[in-house]
Design goal:
Layout: E1 4-8, E2 23-27, E3 30-31, E4 37-40, E5 46-47, E6 59-62, E7 66-70, E8 77-80, E9 87-91, E10 94-100, H1 103-113, E11 118-121, E12 149-153, H2 154-165, E13 184-187, E14 197-202, E15 205-214, H3 233-239, E16 241-242, E17 245-254, E18 260-262, E19 267-272
Parallel strand pairs: 12-13
Antiparallel strand pairs: 1-13, 2-3, 2-18, 4-5, 4-11, 6-7, 7-8, 9-10, 10-11, 12-17, 14-15, 14-19, 15-17, 16-17
């Protein structure tokens, strides 16, 4: 079977529900309109669904002039692109420069979370470099955790779900791909083949596959209810654990930004090389 792009997802506001357009333009720092907005607390630290699971129940969609956010039982919030002086936001001990979205947006999200927060916009993503260990000096990223895009495979998810089905928390499965919040979902590739990809082309867009994605507690939160469980981390720890982390999906950096991706585009592996393979947790050194 030929591997193809099966779905595209973008998340206008960090940690909220995403959109699934049929096509999207690749920019140097990620998909256009992906993760350019984020919430911060009173100390300027990023607020995410790792600690505020309610954000996963908020829908955010792009408009020509900004974004619109929706949540059950609340009036929609429409926010225009803000202008003004930038302010620093801290996330994972790194600084991101952003512009305040304004009082009405702050009030809407503060009431939703029952905690003082502010909505911020990354007006200039050229200011935030990726981790130099895995990127080049001119690589940039939006307000995503670390890299411009995340790619996941439906075959790898099927393999993970098969493992979960035989484990102690089988009732929590199967996992939905939304748990992993990828930008690009690939159909037709062998399970875990993405571990060894180094460079790929999807349609006319070329990417470096710079590293796997180590997964956090956010994957244990049901995207429909915001309830927290144990999976998929328990099963990933048994089958996909190395370097003291568990792994699912792969981080991408675009090499020829400006190209439009469309669902159905063919994926071609341009370069591959065996990476360190996952090992069972029982084989780890304690």
């Amino acid at each position: 079977m030929t591997a193809r792009l099966g779905a595209i997802h973008r998340y206008p506001v960090k940690s909220t529900r995403g959109e699934s357009p049929s096509s999207a333009v690749v920019e140097p720092w990620g998909l256009r309109d992906d993760r350019r907005w984020a919430l911060v607390d009173r100390d300027g630290r990023a607020v995410t669904a790792r600690t505020h699971q309610t954000l996963l129940l908020v829908s955010a969609r792009c408009t020509a002039t900004g974004i619109t956010a929706s949540a059950a039982g609340r009036d929609d919030l429409t926010v225009p692109f803000p202008t003004g002086p930038v302010e620093p936001v801290r996330h994972f001990r790194k600084t991101m420069m952003t512009v305040p979205a304004g009082r009405s947006a702050d009030t809407w999200f503060t009431e939703l979370l029952d905690e003082p927060v502010r909505l911020m916009y990354q007006a200039d993503p050229r200011t935030r470099p990726v981790d130099p260990e895995f990127g080049r000096p001119d690589d940039r990223v939006s307000l995503a955790d670390g890299y411009p895009l995340l790619l996941a495979s439906t075959s790898s998810l099927a393999a993970l779900n098969a493992w979960i089905a035989t484990g102690p928390y089988a009732a929590e499965g199967p996992m939905d791909m939304r748990r992993f919040r990828p930008n690009l979902v690939v159909d037709g590739a062998p399970a875990w083949a993405e571990d060894d990809w180094r460079r790929i082309r999807i349609g006319a867009a070329e990417f470096r596959v710079v590293k796997g994605c180590n997964r956090c507690v956010l994957t244990t939160v049901d995207p429909d209810t915001a309830a927290r469980g144990r999976e998929p981390l328990v099963t990933l720890a048994q089958h996909r654990q190395w370097d003291r982390s568990v792994w699912f999906a792969s981080n991408l950096i675009p090499d020829n930004p400006g190209v439009r991706l469309t669902v159905g585009d063919e994926l071609t592996v341009l370069e591959s090389a065996a990476r360190r393979r996952p090992v069972d947790a029982a084989d780890q050194d304690n």
